[in-house]
């Protein structure tokens, strides 16, 4: 694996929500006097997301490619998540609070291994980018979290009209960056979206698996446990490729 570009997923790869989604939703309910358990609300959120996605038809993204469409989608997610709770009369108020919450950099954290890894990769002469399934809020978040300056490009599904694991989003990025698939690697926490999706488009791919348990799908060699492993891994792979194919900086 000798590459020129390294692409990353965003959520749960470079950044994570703090507090987690279930807790943030439960806090919004509790502030309005509605008892709510974070674990139960989090499970309800996952079910709501899956149900609404299963109902979606057509080629467009479920959350669309405009701010207005994204807001309508996420309002439906919030409404379905809170259906078991006595919060319908306050739904608009709660939705606005949650929309602003997840658009704020104070609600997100950058993983400790992210910035050192990005800086090390840049020092190796590699170009870096993000490929993420997200709505229009991500670009501003990455800027405010201090990551955008370490990236050469940032591609978000709402801009493209396709999301991982669809090969179309990867192909768009490759064309924009003027790099062939075999000279690029994608790193993310979803085996289906980030590993299989990237490989179907011809890219190399690595699963980032932060859990102490063994990853259920990935085979040996497909997985890293921390972004701190990535610079050394890519350097070794480039050296193994031999002098005829190694690139400057590796």
Account of the 3D structure:
The protein is of the alpha/beta class. It has two domains: 5-16 and 109-241, Rossmann fold (3-Layer(aba) Sandwich), CATH 3.40.50; 17-107, Orthogonal Bundle (DNA polymerase, domain 1). The protein has ten helices and eight strands. Strands 5-4-1-6-7-8 form a six-stranded parallel beta sheet, sandwiched between helices. A two-stranded antiparallel ribbon has the order 2-3. Helix 6 links the parallel strand 4 (127-132) and strand 5 (153-156). Helix 1 crosses helix 2 (38-55), helix 1 (21-30) packs antiparallel against helix 4 (91-103) and helix 2 (38-55) crosses helix 3 (67-81). The protein starts with a strand and ends in a 9-residue tail after the last helix.
Give a summary of the structure in a few sentences.
The protein is an alpha/beta fold. The chain contains ten helices and eight strands.
Distance between the termini: 11 Å
Broad shape: elongated
Structural class of the secondary structure composition?
Answer: alpha/beta
Task: Please outline the major beta sheet.
Answer: 6 strands, parallel
Radius of gyration: 19 Å
Number of strands: 8
Instruction: Predict the CATH topology of the largest domain.
Output: Rossmann fold
| Helical residues, percent | 40-55%
Topology order in helix (H) and strand (E) letters: EEHHHHEHEHEHHEHEEH
Level-2 CATH architecture of the largest domain: 3-Layer(aba) Sandwich
What is the helix tally? Answer: 10
| Fourth-tier CATH superfamily name of the largest domain | HAD superfamily/HAD-like
Number of structural domains: 2
Beta-strand percentage range: 5-15%
Strand order across the largest sheet: 5-4-1-6-7-8
User: What value does the average pLDDT take?
Assistant: 91
CATH class of the largest domain: Alpha Beta
Report low-confidence residues grouped into runs of 5 or more.
244-250
